[in-house]
Write a structure and sequence with these properties.
This protein is mainly beta and 259 residues long. It is 7% helix and 26% strand. The protein has one domain (4-13, 21-217): Coagulation Factor XIII, Chain A, domain 1 (Distorted Sandwich). Residues 18-235 form the Auxiliary Activity family 9 catalytic domain.
Length: 259
């Protein structure tokens, strides 16, 4: 296996993914996500949260307001309707494709707005994890195949299932990729890419979200799922996905070992 020093040299040109969610589908309706790199940034009418993170740089501190919904994150001005049990699809923008070096888990969280999401205070949001997928198998890469590799292979996109039976109302979907290519550097090595989307869940469900927590408490930075050298082996079958456990009201607790 290569040393970590050799890995740094190999991936240095790809050290930053500089990415954001550029397209969103809900109930098969397409929306353009917020692009902080536009001149001016665009569009203004989107369910994707506004950010000031031009360049889409990763986040390292895990207990700051930025980790909630991105640097300078503020609520989108519309909420995309989606039926409880339906699918939201998010497509990331990246020149070419999500970097092959940026292996890591993909996680999804949901928080009720308790009113219009366009007016919610990000610091008031209490999230539950509704989905997660981490290391998958030993194929393809020296580091093994991860959820982020699966996302890249699916046109930079990820499908998120909204829990069936969820009570109608407005919610924030927090979709996140964590890149682990330099996580061996310690607590500040793992790169977080959180993106938020306003949703208006429809249907006659009665399931309410309980036990949600502030996103600033999701991660410490020194847990095994973030402080890890993924370059020493392609077998990470013991990998523990960071963050709180998956909410009991979600359909699946962990998609990491699906066929």
């Amino acid at each position: 296996m290569f040393s970590s020093i050799a890995i740094i040299a190999a991936i240095a040109p790809l050290a930053f993914a500089h990415s954001h969610v550029d397209e969103i589908w809900a109930n098969n309706i397409h929306y353009t996500g917020y692009n902080p790199n536009g001149f001016p940034p665009y569009p203004s009418n989107t369910p994707g949260w506004f950010t000031t993170n031009s360049g889409g740089n990763p986040l390292y501190p895990v207990n700051t307001t930025a980790i909630i919904c991105g640097v300078g994150g503020s609520p989108a001005n519309i909420s995309a309707p989606v039926a409880a049990g339906g699918i939201v699809r998010a497509r990331w923008w990246q020149p070419g494709e999500w970097p092959v070096s940026h292996h890591g888990p993909v996680l999804d969280y949901l928080a009720p707005c308790n009113g219009p999401c366009s007016k919610v205070n990000p610091e008031s949001l209490k999230f539950v994890k509704i989905d997660q997928r981490g290391w998958l198998n030993t194929s393809t890469w020296q580091e093994g195949t991860w959820a982020a590799d699966e996302l890249r292979a699916d046109d930079q996109s990820w499908n998120i299932k909204i829990p069936a039976g969820l009570k109608a109302g407005e919610y924030i979907l927090r979709h996140e990729i964590i890149a682990l290519h330099v996580a061996f550097e310690g607590g500040a090595g793992a790169e977080h890419y959180p993106q938020c989307i306003n949703l208006k869940v429809t249907g006659s469900g009665t399931k309410t979200i309980t036990g949600g927590v502030d996103a600033r408490t999701f991660y410490r930075g020194d847990e095994p799922g973030l402080d890890i050298d993924i370059h020493t082996t392609n077998d990470h079958s013991g990998y523990v996905i960071p963050g709180p456990p998956v909410w009991s009201g979600a359909v699946k607790k962990d998609r990491s070992f699906e066929a």
